[in-house]
């Protein structure tokens, strides 16, 4: 199997699924589709005894373009925004603009969309699912530039370049949910793992619906994944060239239906909940925002909790936020929390100080 081996008839649907999990598209999702998937491991304890309330709440950016992704690397904040002139803005941790750049287009280093943002070895990488490329990002002289590292990755849910140049790919509409691909473009390992599906849902509907966010840790070759409308987070490890599922923490299972009741396209039901949303990783922890509210009551998918897990998938504590947030990121040393808020169409970024003694 080579890169790009995804059925042609699934391309348009796959692209919509990928876009839906960027939560500015939730209103589209309410009219369209979604879901998640198959075998279920034993659940972990769902109670966290420790609650952290970060201090500060200093607004460092105000009235900015809507933010799809935010990432903190070496005291710099990378924001993927809805700005056609510069898709990515870079700020220092006080909110001062350092650089901007990367444009929408068909040029060699342009992007059609920023599907995900990852970091590794303190470098920043963008995945563009529509163009099928991974870009490296660099900042110099107030200018942000990108260079294509690899291609042939169209319409996957996510793709991460690992330190040994292997690609970790999260698929859409496939029996194998995760792939490892070597530099020649050959699949060297795969894993078919999906969380439990609702009764009466076909496997092909599940596979189509399995879309979300992925975070990979270079510290120990683990990764975590969250899926839309899922009240669970799954943990994995790559060892000896193989992917294994190591655990799942779930507060509730998937709840959804299909379009018109007889279609293969998944859509939210009246009881569908928001669940886990954005995902961030540091050398010590995985962080993910959470809302237990129904989609119908929270169509913008805003959250006021962040759950913190160790790399083995054990819930360590919860962060309770003072306001609802769109997305967030955490500094590498676990001491600073940056949240994106949207108050009556005014988008802002706030900085908090984490007050846990072990962070």
Order of strands in the sheet with most strands:
3-4-5-6-10-9-8-7
Averaged pLDDT:
85
Instruction: Please tally the helical runs, counting DSSP H or I stretches of 4 or more residues.
Output: 3
Gross morphology: globular
Over all CA atoms, what is the radius of gyration? 19 Å
Give the fraction of residues assigned to helices.
under 10%
How widely separated are the two ends? 43 Å
Low-confidence parts lasting 5 or more residues at pLDDT below 50?
A: 1-46
Provide an overview of this structure.
This protein has 359 residues and is mainly beta. It has helices at residues 11-20, 26-31, 203-209, and strands spanning 51-52, 55-64, 67-73, 76-81, 88-92, 97-101, 116-120, 123-128, 133-140, 143-150, 158-161, 167-170, 178-181, 187-191, 212-217, 222-227, 231-239, 242-252, 257-258, 266-267, 273-281, 285-294, 303-310, 315-325, 327-330, 336-343, 346-353. The strands form six sheets. It has an eight-stranded mixed beta sheet with strand order 3-4-5-6-10-9-8-7, with no helix packed on it. Strands 1-24-23-22-21 form a five-stranded mixed beta sheet, with no helix packed on it. It is globular and about 55 Å long. It starts with 10 loop residues before the first helix and ends in a 6-residue tail after the last strand. The model is unreliable at 1-46 (pLDDT under 50).
Secondary-structure blueprint:
Blueprint (H helix, E strand, L loop, with lengths): L10 H10 L5 H6 L19 E2 L2 E10 L2 E7 L2 E6 L6 E5 L4 E5 L14 E5 L2 E6 L4 E8 L2 E8 L7 E4 L5 E4 L7 E4 L5 E5 L11 H7 L2 E6 L4 E6 L3 E9 L2 E11 L4 E2 L7 E2 L5 E9 L3 E10 L8 E8 L4 E11 L1 E4 L5 E8 L2 E8 L6
Parallel strand pairs: 1-24, 6-10
Antiparallel strand pairs: 2-27, 3-4, 4-5, 5-6, 7-8, 8-9, 9-10, 11-12, 12-13, 13-14, 15-16, 16-17, 17-18, 19-20, 21-22, 22-23, 23-24, 25-26, 26-27
């Amino acid at each position: 199997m080579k890169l790009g081996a995804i059925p042609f008839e699934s391309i348009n649907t796959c692209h919509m699924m990928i876009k839906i999990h960027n939560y500015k598209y939730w209103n589209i999702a309410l009219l369209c589709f979604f879901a998640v998937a198959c075998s279920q491991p034993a659940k972990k304890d769902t109670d966290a005894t420790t609650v952290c309330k970060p201090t500060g709440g200093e607004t460092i950016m105000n009235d900015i373009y809507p933010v799809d992704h935010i990432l903190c690397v070496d005291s710099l904040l990378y924001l993927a925004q809805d700005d056609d002139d510069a898709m990515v803005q870079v700020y220092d941790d006080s909110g001062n603009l350092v650089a901007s750049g990367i444009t929408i287009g068909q040029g060699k280093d342009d992007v059609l969309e920023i599907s995900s943002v990852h970091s590794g070895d303190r470098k920043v990488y963008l995945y563009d699912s529509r163009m099928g490329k991974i870009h490296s990002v660099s900042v110099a002289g107030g200018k942000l530039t990108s260079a294509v590292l690899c291609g042939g990755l169209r319409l996957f849910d996510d793709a991460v370049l690992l330190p040994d140049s292997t690609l970790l790919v999260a698929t859409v509409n496939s029996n194998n949910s995760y792939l490892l691909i070597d530099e020649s473009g050959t699949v060297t390992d795969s894993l078919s793992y999906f969380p439990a599906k609702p009764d009466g849902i076909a496997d092909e509907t599940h596979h189509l619906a399995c879309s979300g966010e992925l975070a990979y840790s270079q510290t120990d070759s683990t990764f975590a994944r969250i899926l839309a409308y899922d009240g669970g987070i799954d943990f994995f490890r790559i060892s000896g060239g193989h992917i294994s599922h190591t655990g799942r923490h779930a507060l509730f299972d998937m709840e959804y239906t299909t379009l018109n009741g007889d279609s293969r396209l998944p859509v939210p039901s009246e009881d569908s909940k928001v669940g886990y949303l954005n995902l961030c990783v540091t050398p010590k922890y995985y962080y993910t925002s959470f809302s237990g509210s129904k989609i119908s009551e929270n169509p913008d998918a805003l959250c006021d909790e962040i759950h913190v897990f160790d790399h083995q998938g054990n819930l360590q504590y919860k962060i309770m936020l003072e306001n609802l947030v769109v997305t967030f990121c955490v500094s590498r040393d676990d001491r600073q929390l940056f949240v994106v808020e949207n108050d009556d169409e005014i988008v802002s970024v706030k900085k908090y100080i984490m007050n846990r003694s072990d962070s």
